[in-house]
Specification:
CATH topology: Alpha-Beta Plaits
Number of helices: 2
Radius of gyration: 16 Å
Number of strands: 7
Helix content: 10-25%
Shape: globular
Order of helices and strands: EEEEHEEHE
CATH architecture: 2-Layer Sandwich
Structural class: alpha+beta
Length: 146
């Protein structure tokens, strides 16, 4: 039996369609900067690389000085840009944080794949999950370089 990877995408609320939510998907609303976004997650194959993709990685760290720097070094070493980093305090702990990073590139591409492998082997990381890759949304006109 073939196991499917997680598939995950962050979608603005005005772009959610029935086809985007097909199958057993879970939506979680993200509040911020006046625009609602949703994480759509489920099991299934990741979309093929589009040439302009993002990969979401969720990880937690050992409690040690410099642990976050050591973990982020995995992406720097392999030339992978992080376009977003979020931290969340674990409800079951007053000192354990989960980090959600959005890396530029598809998880099947060598730099991203190597960065994730490096991250998983990093002594500072206590757990690591690749949530999936998805095509990047086009840049809104008001944010595009002029």
């Amino acid at each position: 039996m073939k196991k499917h990877a997680h598939v995950c995408a962050i979608v603005p609320d005005d772009e959610i369609t029935p086809s985007a939510c097909s199958g057993q998907m879970r939506q979680e609303q993200i509040q911020g900067s006046g625009t609602n976004h949703f994480i759509i997650a489920g099991r299934g194959p990741c979309p093929a690389p589009s040439g302009r993709d993002h990969t979401l990685v969720l990880f937690s760290l050992q409690e040690a000085a410099g642990a976050l720097v050591q973990a982020l070094k995995a992406f720097e070493t392999h030339g992978v840009n992080l376009s977003s980093i979020h931290s969340f305090l674990m409800p079951s702990s007053q000192s354990t944080y989960m980090f959600l990073v959005q890396a530029d590139g598809h998880n099947s591409e060598t730099p991203v794949k190597d960065a994730i492998a490096f991250l998983k082997e990093c002594g500072a990381v206590s757990c690591c999950h690749v949530l999936g890759s998805y095509p990047a949304a086009p840049m809104p006109d008001h944010m595009a370089k002029r």
